[in-house]
Amino acid sequence: MAKFADEFIIGANYWPRNHGIEMWKEWNYDEIKSEFIEAKSLGINVMRINLFWEDFQPKPDVISEEAVKKFDELIKICHEVDMKIAPTFFVGHMSGENWDVPWREGRNIYSDSFMLRYQIKLVRFFAERYKDESAILFWDLSNEPDNYVKAESRHDAWLWNYVLSNEIKKYDKNHPVTLGIHQASLLTDNNFYPEDLQEGNDFLCMHAYPIYTDTCIDPVNSIRSTYMAPFASKLTQAMGGKEVLLEEFGATTLMMSEDIEGNYYKVVLYSLLANESIGAIAWCFGDFSVGERLPYNSTPFETQFGITAVDGRVKKAGLEIKAFSEFMNKIEYKDLKHKKCDAAIIIPDKYYSALFVGNDYTPERNFRILLNSFILAKEAGIDVELVRADGDFSKYKMLILPSAYRKGHLNYDQWVKIMDFVKNGGTLYVSYDGISVEGFDEVFGVKTQYSMVPKNETVSMHCEELGIDLNYKALKFNKRLIAKPTTGRVIANDDENNPAIVINKYGKGNAILVTYPIELYLSYMPDVYKTDRSYLIYKYAKELSGIEYNVKVESPYIEVKEFDYGRKTLVFFINHEDIDIHTKIRISRKTKNNEKIQDLISGRQINLENFTIEANGVVAILLEKGV
Fold first, then answer.
1. What Gene Ontology cellular component terms go with this record (predicted)?
2. What is the Cα–Cα distance from 245 to 329, expressed in whole angstroms?
């Protein structure tokens, strides 16, 4: 199997500007080669290519010789330009519209034996013919297949993915196989589960767009939106247990300025690198001149997702890809080693559905709480990952259980593992959304009285110890806990003078309880992170856990990521907000007065004592080992 460890994938999804999805019917060798040369000049090392199903398999037992000939010409272009491609099979969905192969006749592509037989025929043909082709980076089974045909069960989706993946691998030992799933697999129960797909796929993919989900209600260049794609990658990795490629991301300049879109690209590229993605593929290479055609006629905003304009001008997003590629060429990617994470957010055990729960318990709800918990952890300076509820907690110092629900979130045996984690010295943070389990009161040092929805439209908390006043917009169905302290110490009360934050010593560890589902509240509050200081609760939990980092900054908007890099430490500072940040870099060693270190990205000297990072800016520095 090909390995990506030596190179971070920097790519673009491709259709020709002047032809769009009619690429194979209106084949133009010279135009495509010219656009591949443009992409190469931007530092792109792979183009994802869609094999429109009707063009390559017009009849079940016929693979189009004409289409294959054009694909061979595409391979020739790759060798001439030094570009790799990621061919994607069974493309029936594209940019908001669907096209069907006429011979399907309503059969389900995942479970119908006739359809499986002839899909196997197509992938086998390509696997046998191109098994030794160096221009191919990996095979992708399909593009967001649930948008094209719904799988009737997760087992049908698993079967289809597993059978086709293994059919390719039977003949092709050189190229890995994946499937292009999208955020619908995280926001809905569409039957394409990362944990199922990992059985057949060599790595997992995710397509993530903040503009396409109400879980991101802020501008794309602000903190919630810029963390969304890295978070989706981390969540997919935790659910599926394999590396993740962010195979589609981007935005359209019909919805925002080129500068804002470009800043979004810059932050996301570096944050994906910081959060263990194996690459990023932009949607898409070029704006389209064929707006009168489907799919663009019915989804007109799709015409300007390109990193280049119709006339070939490089848009700011393209310039940011080029700058990122130039930076990656300065370092040895294979030598970057992620440091171990000491903190993890627990994924609800029944993420997609659970029996006998309220209508509010949905995958979107779980995505919301995890995303906003991830943001709070990052704001608190915590390098955090996600872990399954049935996973191994022993390697962590801190566990985060946000907006914990009464059922579906945890099984009792998983809760017992968490109790043991705290007894043995770990720190546990829990915010309440109905969780009811034996031992809860003991862990948090409280006596549960009852739960109820808040009486008022807003919830307020005052915490003198942390110096914060917090305000949230309450939700209609989500409950808060009324509890009396026993061994727990109340550090914050709500506006009715009930305990809002309780700290308790339990065994050798510490437990922190917030009596409201604050992560869920935050998920519905637009642009809230400009003023909200809830992250200070997470920061307090981090300090109780004894988690320390060599490098940190005070601003909650700056993501700090340390890599072991040979005999040195490579540190990134990524500003996830659209405001300039003036701060001090704190390093766990003595620094010389006005010490200056070079920013590897800009080449400028920076002063650790007097440091400004521009809106949506990124800085990278090298420090001696041990720092």
1. extracellular region
2. 19
Task: Tell me if the bond preceding 295 is cis, omega within 30° of 0.
Answer: yes
Inform me whether the pLDDT recorded for 477 exceeds 90: no
- CA of 611: how far to CAs of 555, 573, 594, in Å? 11, 11, 10
Q: What is the pLDDT of residue 364?
A: 98
Report pLDDT digits (tens) over 255-272: 999 999 999 999 999 999
State yes or no: pLDDT of 593 exceeds 60. Answer: no
Report cis status (omega within 30 of 0) of the bond before 284.
yes
516 near 480, Cβ under 8 Å?
Answer: yes
Q: Name the CATH architecture for the domain at 551-624.
A: Sandwich (2.60)
Structure-token pair, residue 591: 């620094």
CB within 8 A of 123, min separation 6: which ones? 89, 139, 141, 164, 167, 168
Helices (H), 206-250: 223-240
Specify whether domain 343-545 bears CATH 3.40.50.880.
yes
Candidates 560, 558, 537, 539; CA nearest to 550 is 560
Spell 188-215 as b/e; 16+ CB within 10 A means b.
eebbbbbbbbbebbbbbbbbbbbeebeb
Pick the CATH number of 9-329 from 3.20.20.80, 3.40.50.300, 1.10.8.60, 3.30.450.40: 3.20.20.80
Which two three-digit tokens encode residue 541?
């939990």
Across the range 471-487, mean pLDDT stands at 95
Query: Residue 199's pLDDT is what?
Result: 96
Q: 379-399: per-residue pLDDT in tens?
A: 999 999 999 999 999 999 999
Neighbouring C-beta atoms of residue 311, cutoff 10 Å: 9
| pLDDT score recorded for residue 1 | 37
Tell me the Ramachandran region of residue 109: left when phi exceeds 0, alpha when psi lies from -120 to 50, beta otherwise.
alpha
What's the predicted TM-score (pTM) here? 0.97
Contacts of 396 (CB under 8 A, 6+ apart): 341, 342, 343, 344, 387, 421, 426
Answer positive or negative: Cα dihedral of 288, 284, 263, 45. Answer: negative
Q: What is the pLDDT of residues 153-183, one digit of tens each?
A: 999 999 999 999 999 999 999 999 999 999 9
List all residues 6 or more positions away from 459 whose beta carbon is below 8 Å from its beta carbon. Answer: 471, 472, 473, 474, 480, 494, 495, 516, 521
The mean pLDDT of the chain is 95
- Find the mean pLDDT for residues 239-268: 98
- How would you list the strands of the sheet with 398-405, edge to edge? 384-388, 343-347, 398-405, 427-433, 509-514, 499-506, 489-494, 458-463, 468-473
Q: Domain-by-domain residue ranges, the chain?
A: 9-329, 343-545, 551-624
